[in-house]
Amino acid sequence: MKTSISKSDLKNISEISKIIKQSKTFFIAGHIKPDGDCLGSALALCSALRRMGKKADVYCSGKVPAGLEFMSGANNIKYKAGKNDVFDCAIILECINFSRMGDIIEPRQAKKVINIDHHSMFTSFGDANYIVPSSSSTAELILNIFEFMKIKPAKEEAENLYVGIVTDTGRFQQLNTTAGSHIAAAKLIDAGVMPNEIAKKAYDSNSLGSVKLLGFALSDIKTLFGGQLAYIFLTDKMFKESGACEDETERIINFTMSIKGVKVGCLFKKTAKGETKISFRSVRDFDVLEVVRQCGGGGHKNAAGCTVKKNMQASLEFIKEAFKEKLDAKPRKTSK
User: Which are the contacts of 260, defined by CB distance < 8 A and separation ≥ 6?
Assistant: First the structure.
């Protein structure tokens, strides 16, 4: 099984390989509020570097989400580099810049920077940059680096990379799923991954509170623009009555796209600052990034997010205005 890699990407991987071989100490981190792909990629890479005799650690500004604590190495993640720490190499995953990691390191603390990303909105801030927006996940890119460097992933590393791919593709159901996603998954299965075990840990080990929260959310879905946009408000009352944590909401938005006729799904959550975090999903031909960019957000064409400096109701009005020309079909029936 072979994955097609462009000549320019091979050149970038070659440069990354060279920096890794020349470096001894590594800082590895991804974006704030890490997801399965961010964590899986970082943990697998860290483990492989240690097997090569390197000194490497994964850093994260926030805690590991409850549903991902089972990942190998997750309990050894550090939360901030020391002010006087200097690393031969910082490997930054899924970040548009250093600030996307949170306040955990300064650029001066890394002699070399490797930037790996698969988002449509990116900057080439590294000494070496490997950015492939057509890739389903960063985990796929890490696997490509492993193969180029002839690193056979250990079972735990393969499992972490598989978690990255399966969560970022929504169990291979989302629009970013490609032939490359399945090829990478097959290689990881050959390395010892048991898909049913990963599925059980990642998707079927929910807390009672998270299931109750999902119930509250689904009972309150509303639609606009003749049923073309579906949205959910996650309120303080829902969290209080369910007992769920904020990091147990990741997959709720996907249910908005299961409604027949919906082109855009939105999930609204209040932040600690009283602002509103909005997550978006959309059908294949609908680009939500055009709206997300207006608020300084990012992500992918069909899966993105942003934070609006308004309360949830005012944020909804902003979204209605932003989408009214794109979803201007005559209303069939709008729920209230």
Answer: none
